Amino acid sequence: MHIQKFALPLLLVSICSLAKAYDPADKVIVKPGNMPIIFSVPHDGDESLGWISPRSKGATVRDADTRELAEKTADLLEKKTGKRPYLVIAKFSRKFLDVNRKEEDAQESAEAIPAYHHYHEQLAGFVTEVSSKYSGNALLIDIHGQSDDPGTIFRGSRNGTTTKRLLKRAGNVALQGPTSITGQLQSKSYQVFPAIDATDLKEDKRFNGGYIISAHGSNNATGIDAIQLEFGKRTRENASLASDFADAIIAFQNKFLTEAPASN
Fold this sequence. Notes:
The protein has about 260 residues and is of the alpha/beta class. The protein has a single domain (about 1-255), classed as Zn-dependent exopeptidases (Aminopeptidase, 3-Layer(aba) Sandwich). About 40% of the residues lie in helices and about 15% in strands. It is built from 10 helices and 7 strands. It has helices at about 1-20, 65-80, 105, 115-135, 165-170, 175, 180-185, 210-215, 235, 240-255, and strands spanning about 30, 35-40, 85-90, 140-145, 150-155, 190-195, 225-230. The protein has a 7-stranded mixed beta sheet, with helices on both faces. It comes from Uliginosibacterium flavum. Pfam families: FGase (PF05013). Keywords: Signal. This is N-formylglutamate amidohydrolase.
């Protein structure tokens, strides 16, 4: 009788534990590529992480349409060049976990930590791969959305810090000259900040880059050049954005990224 009395509660606890569990690999889209470009999309997910409660601190707003922008741009790059960028895209909601923050600030539940580690481990793996394959001449683009200035695309690089290798190799023109990514977008009538004629690399402090680019950028010995792009709400609604973004990346790659010969 005593065994039967406690069997049901134990069974319920077991069932609840299983219900709460999640597989971190199912919460992150990871797609390898074959060009020296990595897209990171941390804030357009809508899924929960087990039964974790929403975070009570920090930004939780979804960067709507940034996943679609990354995936459409990847498809167009393949169509235009025959090659695709690497993709790491969060399926989980920023309400539960923000991977663009340090681990201690990114979550309020230990249950979220496996997803946090999985996201950054996938990025780190791709960074290592492209760094080796393309002799360090590669770029991580962390894609975000903002509504503070809906008609503007903001570049973030910690004022050039996370593109240390690129600046040393090619100078400021690679980051905000006519053939930089934002320079190409400006030439297609998008409003960008900083503008290509800016006299220095100073960025808007609201959008000058978060944890992802600082953790994986070339400010680290094992990192690659990394920028954050904050696309304004109105720019994300532009039907031509993905195509224009793809063209800007192609122009930048042709000018500033030299692919290493394929190994036999």
